[in-house]
Design brief:
By secondary structure, the chain is α+β, with helices and mostly antiparallel strands. Helix content is about 45%, strand content about 20%. The chain is built from 12 helices and 13 strands. The strands form 3 sheets. Strands 4-3-5-12-6-13 form a 6-stranded mixed β-sheet, with helices on one face. Strands 7, 8, 9, 10 and 11 form a 5-stranded mixed β-sheet that branches. The protein has a two-stranded antiparallel ribbon with strand order 1-2. The radius of gyration is 22 Å and the shape is globular. The mean pLDDT is about 85.
Length: about 300
Amino acid sequence: MTRRLPPLSALRAFEAVARLGSVRKAAEELGVDHSAVARHVRNLEAAVGVRLIDTGTRGSTPTPEGRRYAEQAALAFDVLAAATAALRPAGKRGELQVWCAPGLAVRWLMPRLAEIERLIPDREIVLRPTDQAPDLSRGEADVEIRFGPREAAGVRGEALIAPRFFPAASPAFLAGRPPVGSLADLAALPLVHEETREQWRSWLAGAGLDPVPPLDGPRLWYANVAIEAVLLGQGVALVNRLQVAPELADGRLVELLDTDVRLGAYVFQAGAERWNEPAVVRLRRWLIEALAATAAEHRADTVVT
């Protein structure tokens, strides 16, 4: 019997858009341009003769038919993934897939990868800096390290550290400008934002600015990108010492004002059924100890126990 199947690339693109609710996020996950993802979805809709995705101001939402189709496609991909895993030789070293908030991954965790590899020598460490949420119950990742908890069925989490966030800028940016002596002075500067301006609004309110005025500055999506922009003299970013300790130490960044505002905690999450697996336990304990050591070194951050 001949199977009439759509192109696999189109089906993968559609399933990712339906699951993530965003063409942009699907493109990032698949490592392709967002226009290619949109084209794949349109081609799939043309092939099956049914509208699968509705796109609006709030993102991309599957239609009722699209939702059912996406659920079945996800199950099929799970079957393929399991079959592929079963082909691996029994003695081959397995992977430990770690999805991590980009700022923490790039600026704190990556320099310590060798320590993790020595800690877990029987697994190949695969680190993915991303703000996307993996489906831990389906094995999309083994471990997630994110900022703030995420409620999901079958997932356990443990808070690691609640860092102090503070504004920082480069000396080049500050040169020739009036001194920043108040929160109002700070809010009037070009502020570098991540995905939204909400983090800056929350921080300014937490620091005591009332009301918080409309804020200016570019949105650059990820903390590590925002930090690079600030190092280039393009504005002021909210940072913590886990992200910028070397830059503060060598003077490439300068902390502004004297504040103590905590916006939340980094959280370690894994599937409940895998919570006590040896590799997961070793990584979790190492993170708690390493972050505690970093906090003690700077005496500025709170370890959550």
